[in-house]
Each structure stands twice: as C-alpha cells, then as structure tokens.
Amino acid sequence: MKKAIQFGAGNIGRGFIGKILSQSGYEVCFADVVKDIIDELNKNHEYNVEIVGANRKVVKVKNVLGVMSNGDEIIEKIKESELITTAVGPNVLKIIAKTLAKGIEAREAAGINEYLNIIACENMINGTSFLKEEIEKYLSKEIVDGYMKKYVGFPNSAVDRIVPPMDSKENILDVKVEEFREWIVQQAAFKGEIPKIEGMELTNNLMAFVERKLFTLNTGHAITAYLGVLNGHNTVKESIENPDIREVVIDAMKESGEVLIKRYNFEKDVHEKYINKILTRFENPHLKDEVFRVGREPLRKLSFNDRLIKPLRGTLDYELKNESLVKGIAAAMKYQNENDPQALELNGMINELGIKETFKKISGLENSYGLEDRVSYHYNMI
Q1: pTM over 0.90
Q2: pLDDT by residue (tens digit) across 310-354?
Q3: Burial of 323 (0-12, 13-18, 19+ CB in 10 A)
Q4: Quick one: which H or E segment has residue 152?
Q5: Domain 207-381 maps to which CATH number in 3.30.70.1290, 3.30.460.10, 1.10.1040.10, 1.10.10.10?
Q6: CB 93 within 8 A of CB 127
Q7: Are 44 and 74 in contact (CB under 8 A)?
C-alpha cells in the first residue's frame, strides 16, 4: 500500500487532506504533538467525517495511524513514505522543517532513490516554497544541490474547505466539514510520476487560483468575522445575515475581484458566480463557524501578502476603488480578543503608536498613499 504522512492531525488534516489521501488508496500516518489524538488513531485506525450541506452524509476514513511529530519514530515514517502533506498553520512550518530535514538526510544515508513529494496545504501563498527554504537551513549544500534536488519535489498548492470545530462528539477523531472542497497543486513541481489522487486538481497557473481564493474566500471570511465581532455576532452565518455587514463584505469581494479580473483576465460573470458561491458557504446553517476562530491572528491577516493588504495593494496597482476593503481593514484593527496574543499585541501597538502609524507598520506599505487617514477615519467611525 502507498504510504503518506499528514503533518497536523487537527480538523483540517483529518477532515480534508487526510480524508482525500485515504480514499485515494494511501495508508495515512498523521504526525502531531497531541498525544490523545495520536493514541486514538493508533487504537481505532479509522474515524468519521460528517459532510454537511444540502445533502448530509457521513464518510468513514480508514487505514490511518498516528505518530508523535516530535519523536524518533517520525524519521522512519519519512523514509517509508512517497508523499508528505501539511496542515499545521504557517507559523508551525518552521518547526516541522527540522524534522523533515532529518528525514531527508536519513533517506539519503539509507540510499533511498525513490521520489518524495512534499506539499504544504496552508492558508498562505507559496507555503511549500517557504517550507523548502526552512528545510534547506538544516541541510548541507551537498544534500540540497544533490539528493534533494534530484529526488524531493516541493509543489505549491491552494486549499479551500471550511472545517469548523465539532459541537460535541464522543470520538475525538470525528470531524465535520462543508461539501465544497478545492485542492489545486502545482503540476510542474512534482518529482517522478505524479500521484493519482481523487480531489487533487493540477495546474501550471497556480497563482491565479491562490489569489482567487485569498482575495475572495479569505478576504470575505475575515471581514465578515471582524465586523461580526464588532456587532456582537457569534458565528459567520449570523454575521453575514446582518444586511449592513453583508453589503460591506460583498462590495469588498467585488473590489478584490476587479483586481483578479485585471491581473488574470477572469471573466466577470464567472467570478461573480464564484463570489455568490462563497456567500452560500458563509450562510451554511450546518456550520457553526465562530467569528473569533476566523478572526484569530490579526497581525498575520493584516500583513503585506495576506488576505486584507494584498488585495488592497492590487487596487492601488490598477487604480481601482477600495472603500469596503479599507472598512474591513479598519474593523480588523479594532479586533479585541483577550485570548489571542496577536490581538493583544495589535491593541498595544495602537495604544503606543496610534492607529495611523500602526497601520503603516503592520501593513508593510512603504508608500501608504494616504490610506492611514482613511483607515483611521473608519476605525473611529466603527
């Protein structure tokens, strides 16, 4: 049986990527630091995925096991595998890079001349390229330029599926997901024969899909959440059903959509249908998608290449309107969550530097084009 490792045994790892790999004939080894989940995987070797939407169904995922990602056994698993995927969050990629480097060293030392492909399935642009750079820091130049270059592929990918926490469950492995799913992977970056995985779509124009998702789902999701928090809503569904919030979110997605239409020659009517599809996902009554979950880590979401500032930069490049994007950014800067270290850090910066200087600092915009005045205006108006 083909063997794969999924770093990250959380809801996305189990409910999305792990499920796809298992159903494509892989034995899936989940690597994580949460011992309870690893123990349950090794005890049961299966779990249920509840798919909710117009047609609810439960799918049993089989042929799974677990290993602690910070233990010694993971190196042997890397030696045995032909595919490694991740769903750990962008900040954890640096941590697992050292383990992956040790695994590549072990493969080289053992004379394993079979191809290995590593795909980061994260909410970030070029996440696999970032992971590759981090792995290289722990390897000799000889291995990087020799063995790794020849035998290890690093395709970038774009993933899209909403996987909220379960309301309650008897089995800690069970997970709930929406019907919609999208996993698009860079075809040319594979080494060896490309694995046949049902649900994995190949492309040689990945950035168009990456930015479509980032500028639409991620931008709209974030703005819905931040405005929802400010209006006392608990879930994305509650927030998007607020007419005032809905108007801002739709307009913001249209503003970012105009950037995509200019940049990638998307057809306007097709992209508007995509926006409407995103809205129906936000409205899914079966998903309890909490606004505080979606809004977490505001500093990352307000950074230069992420879901709020990057589409804004595009509107500046093409001289397009961006009023609703600015409103969404102002709402993000007003985000309050005492359980979120980044929210506390953001609040501290605003108290120390003021809203205008904080915006310029965290957005990374060398020339802010006077945007700090507009962000400040909406920040004070909210």
Answers
A1: no
A2: 999 999 999 999 999 999 999 999 999 999 999 999 999 999 999
A3: middle
A4: strand 152-153
A5: 1.10.1040.10
A6: yes
A7: no
